[in-house]
Amino acid sequence: MLTPLQKRFRYHFRGNRQTNVISKPEWYLAQVLMWIGNHTQFLDEKIQPILDKVGSSVNARLEFSRGLMMLVLEKLATDIPCLLYDDSLFCHLVDEVLLFERELHTVHSYPGTFASCMHILSEETCFQRWLTVERKFALQKMDSMLSSEAAWVSQYKDITDVDEMKVPDCAETFMTLLLVITDRYKNLPTASRKLQFLELQKDLVDDFRIRLTQVMKEETRASLGFRYCAILNAVNYISTVLADWADNVFFLQLQQAALEVFAENNTLSKLQLGQLASMESSVFDDMINLLERLKHDMLTRQVDHVFREVKDAAKFYKKERWLSLPSQSEQAVMSLSSSACPLLLTLRDRLLQLEQQLCFSLFKIFWQMLVEKLDIYIYQEIILANHFNEGGAAQLQFDMTRNLFPLFSHYCKRPENYFKHVKEACVVLNLNIGSALLLKDVLQSASGQLPATAALNEVGIYKLAQQDVEILLNLRTNWPNTGK
Fold first, then answer.
1. pTM value?
2. What family is it from (predicted)?
3. CA distance 479 to 248
4. Phi then psi dihedrals of residue 476, to 5 deg
5. Which residue numbers in the chain have pLDDT < 50?
6. Buried (b) or exposed (e) across 452-468, using 16+ Cβ within 10 A?
7. DSSP label of 14
8. How far apart are CA 278 and CA 259, in angstroms?
9. C-alpha distances in angstroms, 39 versus 105, 161, 416?
């Protein structure tokens, strides 16, 4: 059955026949697939029962496919040396071979254990050329995706449900490129070849990270601007996807293979080998760590920028006359301190702006980092730097609990828990006279730590230390005159 087909194949795809064109590997690959497809029914229904009857273990369809595959392997072995140094022809051949392999395995159930084109592509000269061409074309694509006009815009920006991560187009295209490369090499017959491709992918990630860093440095003056935020979203997206890939079965198998290679070559410490073996670390850990560091640096720069603006807007609020403000009973209704308005407006505008430009997970880190600095700043620069009469303490508490904290209520249920210093300072400053005197006595007479802690917890103080509370009590001016 094979002999006439072998003759036809050699007639058409060897020598100076018009059908033997080195730039058209798809012609002979399609011919072989067609022959396999056309003979499948006949082999399964007519030939296989005869073999089964005599107790043969031969699978007629697979043996027929293997016979034709030998023709393809011969042809590839002849053609590849002729087009090895023509990038476009070589790349086209690899593309066609990969499509042929996919159809052969998925449609015609050709076993992975049989000889296949991937063995030819894995031979040293051919494989190194494939790696070089893959790297070259990937770098060209990276150039074009970063220079595109839509590089920093999300394709899904108008579809809220899809655009949770606010991924700029260049980052999504880059990860798709990596995914396609994985798809191309995942059927290579040996783990060592797959690991070489994995190294290529890691190099590309590193290259892309460096490019993002370069663009980011051009944007540092506008760290709240659209492009800076888009770069930050891109870094976050790539890091998140790589972390997901680390749990993928294919990459876990590669991790195991890498572990065996490292163990043989003694290239890692026992600790690193242990982490890889126990799956504590992954093949992408180095990349993820670098991306996470870049993400943290960028977020820190944004937080510092907004914090500087907020401090600047708070300069009049710092100088408020906390010592001589009217008490609550002297006012018809409490209202926000006018000097706090610039501070709160600046904060509100920046939060809204960054909520729109950063993805949810990044914005959450941003506002929590900002609140941490804000809490310490208000506590140290405004509260500890002033003295408070009864009206001043009440006004501070009103400004904080009714105006500052609610700015963050859109992002969490209990924003006051993020302002622990400020919240507890307000509690101490607003204790009624009796409770304040009692607390002062307890703190002064407390020799051990336990009774003081219990007394502090009783009035709602958990974060501030005993000395801090004593300092705050001394900032109050509304003590009764005891004649001392």
1. 0.87
2. Belongs to the RINT1 family.
3. 66
4. -75, 140
5. 483-484
6. beebbeeeebeebebeb
7. S
8. 11
9. 16, 49, 75
Q: What is the pLDDT of residues 39-71, one digit of tens each?
A: 999 999 999 999 999 998 889 999 999 999 999
Give the CA distances from residue 50 to residues 35, 61, 109, 274, 285, in Å, rounded to whole numbers and listed in that order: 21, 13, 21, 55, 56
pLDDT, position 445? 83
Measured between alpha carbons, how far is 357 from 298 in angstroms, rounded to an integer? 14
What are the distances in angstroms from CA 61 to CA 35, 105, 121, 141, 465? 11, 13, 25, 41, 81
Q: Which residue(s) pair with 476 in the sheet?
A: 388
With CA atoms as reference, report the closest residue to 406 among 479, 348, 357, 329.
348
Cα dihedral angle (329, 331, 334, 338), rounded to 10 degrees? -140
Structure tokens at 84: 């090895």
Do 175 and 209 meet the contact criterion of CB atoms below 8 Å apart? no
Per-position DSSP letters for 132-169, written without gaps between them:
HHHHHHHHHHHHHHHHSTTTTS-TTTT-TTT-TT---H
Q: Which residue has the tokens 């290679």?
A: 261
**C-alpha distance across the termini of the chain, in Å:** 118
- Model confidence over 109-159: pLDDT tens digits? 888 888 899 999 999 999 999 999 999 999 999 999 999 999 999 887 766
Report CA 206 to chain centroid distance, whole Å. Answer: 14
Report the alpha-carbon distance of residue 445 to residue 437 in Å, rounded. Answer: 12
Distance between CA atoms of 190 and 445, rounded to whole angstroms? Answer: 76
Could you give the C-alpha distances from 151 to 144, 234, 242, 275, in angstroms and in order?
9, 10, 20, 37
Which is nearest to 291 in space by CA: 363, 333, 360, 240? 240
**CA pair distance 470, 386, nearest whole angstrom:** 15
Spatial separation of the C-alpha atoms in residues 293 and 209, rounded to whole Å: 11
Instruction: Please tell me the predicted confidence (pLDDT) of residue 278.
Output: 64
Burial class of residue 407 in the structure, from the number of CB atoms within 10 Å of its CB (0-12 exposed, 13-18 middle, 19+ buried): middle
User: Rounded to an integer, what distance in angstroms lies between the CA atom of residue 291 and that of residue 246?
Assistant: 15
CA dist 258 → 182, 198, 225, 240 (Å): 16, 10, 42, 22
Return the structure tokens found at 282.
């992954």
Looking at residue 484, its pLDDT comes to 42
Helices (H), 155-269: 169-185, 191-218, 226-245, 249-265
